[in-house]
Design goal:
Low-confidence stretches: 417-427
Mean pLDDT: 86
Structural class: mainly alpha
Order of helices and strands: HHHHHHHHHHHHHHHHEE
Largest sheet: 2 strands, antiparallel
Oligomer: single chain
Helix content: over 70%
Strand content: under 5%
Number of strands: 2
Number of helices: 16
Distance between the termini: 53 Å
Radius of gyration: 22 Å
Length: about 425
């Protein structure tokens, strides 16, 4: 949109400076953070199907309208549109978590959750690899918005007819499969939806460990993806932003390793590895591995080695899909969407703060020592977040899963190792 020389020159070119471009890129997250918690609560109360449908459909339609908004209102109108897009997309992850909690049997949560969220990496690879081609074609840069928006609208239509919030609402599965899923997760079609136990949630130590590990993950992960290209361009003199293959490579490896880790986790589970141990082992791989690699990136002087380290680091991070990212459902299947909304809201605040801290520390982009400080801070977040998760994280269904309970009842159930929806696995 700002460089006609790199795309089809027959379309408008906007003279937006770096400050304006940064504002446009960040404006999405202003709305994204706001609807995280409400999105989880709405999906929990009214069903995730329509919450997901409305959120993605509106976001797709606004993607299609982006070129028009840019033409009639320049960057201020595009900025406003992206804020609204963020508001719409803020409900997606809480809704997906709610769906997984209603559909995935306990021993298949990690596998089905990984398959589901690997789609985010696949979509990123697809768009990074095709956007340059589309922009250079007869469709120009507006084609990127038209095509991606149209795909979202098409998905929404398919989802409307075939999606379902719960197995009981689905018309495409057998009675036997529905009963199997409902028995596995301990729910019935006539289950009364409990009130959200806000006090119990915000006084739960396992949940606080989940918040912190999610925040630590976002700090480290977004430092990797947003700052490493700048570091490599200035310190190692390697520009990977302008290379679509190198830009997409980390996401591609992450998408592939999702399935590798899922297969290994499933194999270990069948051989008797407990759910608690599995969550913590894979989360350790996904966070302490990148912590070590970040420190290594700070000292390497070889651009090729740096790209290999970056790719492996982002790929290994996919192990967290089998770690903390499914823990919301472990703690409370009934309120998984709400828990995801809370932790993802807090974590995305870290996504905003992290680049600001980098800007404060790195006053000279060609100073390797300043970049090492940034990497050490991110590695410390990865290390501390996972350590707290390993020490205080739980995989037991919490006593407040079925709604507010008295302190005495909560204590008694915790001591007995049971929740009101049945026995739970010991950690």
């Amino acid at each position: 949109m700002t460089n006609a020389n790199s795309t089809n020159p027959d379309f408008p070119e906007y003279t937006w400076n770096e400050k304006t471009k940064s504002l446009l890129l960040s404006s999405f997250f202003w709305g994204y953070i706001i609807t995280q918690i409400p999105g989880g609560a709405i999906a929990q109360k009214y069903g995730a199907k329509y919450c997901l449908l409305i959120g993605l459909l509106l976001c797709s339609l606004m993607a299609i309208l982006t070129p028009y908004f840019a033409a009639i209102g320049d960057w201020p109108l595009v900025c406003a549109l992206r804020v609204v897009q963020g508001l719409c997309q803020g409900v997606l992850f809480p809704s997906v978590h709610t769906l997984i909690s209603k559909w995935a049997p306990v021993d298949e949560r990690g596998k089905l959750g990984t398959y589901t969220y690997s789609g985010t990496q696949f979509g990123t690879v697809l768009m990074l690899g095709s956007s340059g081609v589309i922009a250079s074609s007869s469709a120009g840069w507006p084609g990127i918005f038209y095509i991606s928006g149209a795909v979202g609208v098409l998905w929404s239509i398919v989802w409307y007819f075939y999606g379902a919030s719960t197995p009981a609402e689905s018309k495409s599965i057998s009675v036997e499969e529905r009963k199997f899923i409902e028995t596995s997760i301990g729910s019935t079609p006539n289950t009364v939806k409990p009130k959200t136990p806000w006090l119990a949630i915000f006084t739960s130590i396992p949940f606080y460990s989940l918040i912190f590990v999610h925040c630590a993950h976002n700090w480290g992960f977004w430092t990797l993806l947003t700052e490493i290209p700048t570091y490599m361009a200035n310190i190692l003199k390697k520009d990977i932003k302008s290379n679509a293959v190198l830009s997409a490579l980390p996401y591609f490896v992450m998408c592939l390793l999702c399935y590798v880790f899922s297969f290994i986790a499933d194999l270990l589970f069948k051989r008797g590895l407990s759910l608690s141990t599995s969550r913590k082992v894979f989360n350790t791989i996904g966070q302490w591995g990148p912590a070590v690699a970040l420190i290594g990136l700070g000292y390497t002087t070889d651009a090729t080695l740096a790209i290999v380290l970056l790719t492996i680091t982002v790929g290994i991070n996919s192990a967290t899909y089998l770690g903390f990212q499914m823990n919301h459902i472990d703690l409370s299947p009934n309120f998984a969407g709400t828990l995801m909304g809370i932790t993802n809201c807090a974590a995305n605040v870290m996504s905003i703060i992290a680049p600001l801290v980098v800007g404060f520390i790195v006053t000279d982009e060609e100073n390797a020592f300043q970049w090492r400080i940034v990497f050490f801070i991110s590695a410390a977040f990865f290390f501390t977040g996972n350590l707290l998760f390993c020490l205080f994280g739980k995989t037991e269904v919490q006593p407040w899963n079925n709604g507010p309970v008295s302190r005495r009842q909560s204590t008694r159930e915790a001591e007995n190792g049971t929740a009101r929806n049945g026995p739970v696995e010991s950690t």
